[in-house]
Amino acid sequence: MATRNASSPSWSTVFKFDNLERPVQQHLKNVYACLGTGMLAAAAGGYLTLIGSIMQAGFLTALISVGLMLWLNSTRHCKENFNMRMGIFLGFTFCSGVSLGPCLRMAIYVDPSIIPTALLATSVIFISFTIAALFNTNRTFLYMGGLLMSTLSWLMVLSLANLFFGSRLLFNVSMYLGLFVFCAFVLYDTQLIVEKRRLGDDDYIWHSVDLFLDFINIFRKLMIILSNKETEKKRKD
Q1: SS3 for 5?
Q2: Judging by beta carbons within 10 Å of its beta carbon (0-12, 13-18, 19+), is residue 200 exposed, middle or buried?
Q3: Which helix (H) or strand (E) holds 161?
Q4: Most confidently modeled of 16-25, 141-150, 228-237?
């Protein structure tokens, strides 16, 4: 009977990031634990905005989430401020989930299956790009920062201009290019967090904000793209 080759790698060794120092690995554990907690808060916010008639001011809650993010950034990272900063972070993620209300309601109106499909696709993209960034030892993706920021700025200008033109083509370009940019941001932000920790920055709450924004923006754009595709399909039928 053939036996398994003892030298063949197992899943536990395949995903053991030996290129990362132990303090960096511990920091990443804290970042993703914090991110997971924020995702739960965002999911609660998104759920409440669907079942409640009060929490439907998506634009207002988006402004509140921005304010909370700025407050978190201005609050010093130290042991004494941990509980307060964690509360601010959870408030930020909760309000971000509430601000998704209009997109969630649109997706449910078109086809309720769009939401779990977009969530699954976002999770696969996020995990895959995260692993790719952590396995990359040449810090290649750090050089994308300037290009990504410039592209994001042009996308904002394009979106504002399209408010006046109302072009379907510009809208699609903005959605698909924006999806590509935020996928690339997962690569960039993951490697940036690693390098920041190596330089002594261990503020894992703030580092999880970057990854949270990447995830939620990918999720939002996928929902819009899938909703538009399903609407076009129904129109043709």
Answers
A1: coil
A2: exposed
A3: helix 145-165
A4: 141-150
Q: What percent of the chain has pLDDT over 70?
A: 89
List the Cα angle 79/193/18 in 5-degree steps.
105
pLDDT digits (tens, 9 = 90+) for 32-74: 999 999 999 999 998 888 887 555 556 788 788 999 999 999 9
Burial of 28 (C-beta count, 10 Å sphere; 0-12/13-18/19+): buried
Q: Which two tokens stand for residue 46?
A: 């998104």
Alpha carbon 31 to its chain centroid, in Å, reads 13
For the chain, report the end-to-end CA distance as a whole number of angstroms. 57
Cα 66 to Cα 168: distance, rounded to the nearest angstrom: 29
State the amino acid at position 176 in one-letter form.
Y
Output the CA–CA distances (angstroms, integers) from residue 176 to 102, 120, 122, 125, 193, in the order listed. Answer: 19, 18, 14, 14, 26
Residues 226-235: tens digit of each pLDDT: 999 998 887 8
Residue-wise pLDDT for 105-127, tens only, equals 899 999 999 999 999 999 999 99
Selection from 214, 193, 212, 209 nearest residue 24 by Cα: 193
The set of residues, in sequence order, having a beta carbon less than 8 Å from that of 46 and lying 6+ positions away, is 97, 98, 100, 101, 104
- Cα–Cα distance measured from residue 95 to residue 60, given in angstroms and rounded to the nearest whole number: 9
Whether 219 and 124 have beta carbons less than 8 Å apart is answered as no
> The tokens of 230 are what?
């399903």
Looking at this protein, which amino acid is placed at residue 1? M
